[in-house]
Amino acid sequence: MKATGPVLAGSVVSGVLASACCLGPLVFTLLGVSGGALSHRFEPLRPYFLTSTYGLLASAFYLTYRPREVECLPGEVCAMPRANRLAKVLLLIGTALVLLTTAFPWYSQYLF
Question: CA-based angle 40:25:110, to the nearest 5?
Answer without folding.
Answer: 45
